[in-house]
Specification:
The protein has 275 residues and is an all-alpha fold. 77% of the residues lie in helices and 0% in strands. The chain is built from 12 helices and no strands. It has helices at 9-34, 39-58, 69-90, 98-117, 121-129, 137-156, 158-166, 168-173, 178-196, 205-216, 223-248, 252-273. Helix 1 packs antiparallel against helix 11 (223-248), helix 2 runs parallel beside helix 4 (98-117) and helix 10 runs parallel beside helix 12. The radius of gyration is 19 Å and the shape is globular.
């Protein structure tokens, strides 16, 4: 990956954004069909807990100063995803309870670590809302490796994912382990949130997973079309969001989400006019 060293910070941001624009709506399409898109919000907040804990540890001494808080965020994201799935199993008839439990826990713990760390505003700003100028070579490498891993898992288990998403009873009769598939989904959600936080921001990554898919479902007639249009809408949102973010010095994640909303409204308007 030596070519990454020759890229400017803008090119690194665009490359990272394009990759995220493929993976996030791809996973989001499955989450929509499974009706668990909101889970991304709770896991993103527990990811913030991991990052804030990493930043806090970095202030304690030289032992943790060189540790990238993103990696601890990945660990917390995976743990949060697994706990969320476990809570959904425990509260089988009230599965939505898992989201506020994990979300509130993440916010509370993050507030404690942030207050203990006593670091500057700019550092938290890029983590919370994303920043095109803060994407480093190591960040792009992490995003690329994570994207390859996610694509490999989806290709490998595509049939199982589709069956469990559309007809869980038939999937169980066919011998597919729902616990194993749910574990893999939890892993994918954690990976998507982790890879997206430097560009979109932890608080806004859920929007990139959900909104392009919400626009796509208005024009799609099959699941494959849902995935295709979701990726197209996500790419439009990211590329225009990155451009306007850089031109006007606006939070990258906020601009991407705003463009996503505009795309969704445009799709809804065009669909209504075509009736």
């Amino acid at each position: 990956m030596e070519f990454l060293l020759n890229l400017t910070f803008i090119e690194r941001g665009i490359l990272a954004g394009v990759i995220i624009g493929i993976i996030a709506p791809l996973v989001g399409s499955f989450l929509l069909v499974r009706r668990i898109s909101v889970v991304t919000e709770s896991i993103s907040h527990i990811t913030l807990t991991g990052i804030s804990a990493g930043v806090f540890l970095g202030t304690l001494g030289p032992l943790f100063q060189n540790m990238n808080p993103m990696y601890l965020g990945v660990v917390f994201a995976l743990i949060g995803a697994l706990i969320t799935e476990r809570l959904r199993e425990m509260y089988r008839h009230f599965q939505e309870l898992a989201v506020p439990i994990i979300l509130s826990t993440g916010i509370g713990m993050s507030a404690i670590f942030i207050s203990l760390a006593r670091t500057g505003y700019n550092e938290w700003y890029s983590y919370l809302f994303g920043s095109i100028v803060s994407v480093t070579v190591s960040d792009v490498q992490f995003i690329m490796i994570t994207a390859i891993f996610v694509l490999f898992i989806i290709v490998l288990f595509y049939k199982e994912f589709v069956l469990t998403s559309f007809d869980q009873e038939f999937a169980q009769v066919s011998g597919i382990s729902m616990k194993f598939v749910n574990f893999i989904f939890a892993l994918l959600i954690a990976m998507v949130i982790s890879m997206s936080m430097k560009v979109v921001g932890i608080l806004l990554v859920g929007a990139l997973v959900v909104i392009p898919v919400a626009a796509s479902i208005q024009v799609s007639k099959s699941f494959k079309q849902l995935i295709f249009f979701s990726i197209i809408f996500a790419q439009i949102s990211i590329l225009f969001g990155l451009y306007f973010s850089y031109q006007f010095n606006i939070a990258t994640g906020g601009m991407i989400v705003l463009i996503s909303i505009l795309v969704l409204l445009l799709v809804l308007l065009l669909k209504r006019l075509m009736r």
